[in-house]
Amino acid sequence: MTTITLVQGDITRVSADAIVNAANSSLLGGGGVDGAIHRRGGPAILRECRALRASRYGKGLPTGRAVATIAGDLDARWVIHTVGPVYSETEDQSDLLASCYRESLRVADGLGARTVAFPAISTGVFRWPMTDAARIAVTAVREAETAVREVGFVLFDERAYAAFASQLPD
Ligand code: ADP
């Protein structure tokens, strides 16, 4: 059984075996949560991202996939970078968003991580409507077959927290 917990705050301040980054496919950093993770985690994370880019992901990390690096100065053993889909009004990309959660948990299992913290993937620059993103995220984690004991969704603001809370029983 995986326990789901909700926290409102900054994901770079939490402690977990693995912290998930809503990265972009370049793996070379960006804004939002990605920028915050690299800022607080320090340059070692970006160095490993660059090496991954050179060795395995020359064309970038595909949307819906996940890959781990060290966590630098963060209070975690690993950062798991995953690339969410950009929200589209014409194309249903829900399964790609769900895949970010599934693949991140699969990578976490491979590492032996037991606690994993997720941000609300794709809900910032990638514009996914928060309530729908919350439903997809919670469903994907609930349905995942994983040895991860605790998944924490770390929501940056009250609106995101409320959207995720509405997907969980009281
Ligand atoms: P994406 O490109 O996947 O949309 P963003 O980083 O732009 O990624 O946004 C994803 C979500 O992460 C948004 O809801 C945003 O408010 C939130 N966010 C931004 N910074 C942080 C942070 N430091 N901790 C947790 N969540 C954050």
UniProtKB/TrEMBL annotation:
It holds the Pfam family Macro. Its EC number is 3.1.1.106. InterPro entries: Macro_dom, Macro_dom-like. Keywords: Hydrolase. PROSITE patterns: MACRO. Residues 1-170 form the Macro domain. Transmembrane segments: none annotated. SUPFAM superfamilies: Macro domain-like (SSF52949). GO terms for molecular function: O-acetyl-ADP-ribose deacetylase activity. Coiled coil: none annotated. NCBIfam families: PRK00431.1-6. PANTHER family: GANGLIOSIDE INDUCED DIFFERENTIATION ASSOCIATED PROTEIN 2-RELATED (PTHR11106), MACRO DOMAIN-CONTAINING PROTEIN (PTHR11106:SF27). This is O-acetyl-ADP-ribose deacetylase. It comes from Streptomyces broussonetiae.
